[in-house]
Amino acid sequence: MENTVIHKAETRGHANHGWLDSYHTFSFANYYNPERMHFGVLRVLNDDRIDPGMGFGTHPHDNMEIITIPLEGDLEHKDSMGNSAVIKNGDIQVMSAGTGIKHSEYNPNNNKLTKLLQIWIFPNKKNVTPRYGQITLNEKHRHNKLQQIISPNAQDDGVWIHQDAWFYLADFDKDFSTEYKLKKSGNGMYIFILNGEMEVKGSNLNTRDGIGIWDTESIILKATTKTEFLLMEIPMTINMN
């Protein structure tokens, strides 16, 4: 029996710290909702805006796969593994925190905002060696198609993480539709609308709405306006070896 859950944009947790304006789909920091702890292995989906010259000072993580998707502007990253990089729209960054890492994230510009999604995924292995990965994508490759950005396999398109998860970015024209078939039995999917409107399972979704679907094998995705979205196929059971 197929199941769905819809998270409308206006129902998300919200924290405005001045320099940081953040919307939380799932419980995070001071936002706690017992019905919004996670969706399968998807633990955090934060929609952040960082003011010029501001950012997150050095802080620790462990046993989490952390994915950063810049939507606008730049983000400067430094970590305890010695990595230093600036990521921008079109880039995808992943970190396997594993046994523990520390990192900082700043908007390096003094005249423009940085907007990004930060996503945390429970891994399928505990205490792995920390790892950093970054790629730059051709955004034209997501026009009326699903552009794979995350997978479990290093040799596949995108970057890989320690989880049987596949992420895609897409940019659909109005009235374009396609079918997505899940890659692994027991997985579900979470779709987050970046811009526009979509029809999924008879529900109309607008900008920054999310829908989780599980106990299904495939889904029809239809854009009712020009629409950009993120699709995440993820295990519904948390199981760290």
Mean pLDDT: 96
Radius of gyration: 17 Å
CATH class: Mainly Beta
CATH overall fold name: Jelly Rolls
The share of residues in extended strands comes to: over 45%
CATH architecture: Sandwich
Largest sheet: 7 strands, mixed
Which residue ranges are poorly predicted, with pLDDT under 50 across at least 5 consecutive positions?
none
Helix content: under 10%
Give structural attributes.
single chain; 241 residues; mainly beta; Jelly Rolls; 7-stranded mixed sheet; 7-stranded antiparallel sheet; 0% helix; globular
Structure in words:
With about 240 residues, the chain is mainly β. The two termini are about 30 Å apart. It has strands at about 5, 15, 20-25, 40-50, 55-60, 65-70, 75-80, 85-90, 90-95, 100-105, 115-120, 130-135, 145-150, 160, 165-170, 175-180, 185-195, 200, 205, 210-215, 220-225, 225-235. It has one domain (about 5-235): Sandwich (Jelly Rolls). Helix content is about 0%, strand content about 55%. The strands form four sheets. Strands 1-20-17-22-15-13-14 form a seven-stranded mixed beta sheet, with no helix packed on it. A seven-stranded antiparallel beta sheet has the order 2-3-4-11-6-9-12, with no helix packed on it. A four-stranded antiparallel beta sheet has the order 5-10-7-8, with no helix packed on it. The model has no long low-confidence stretch (mean pLDDT about 95).
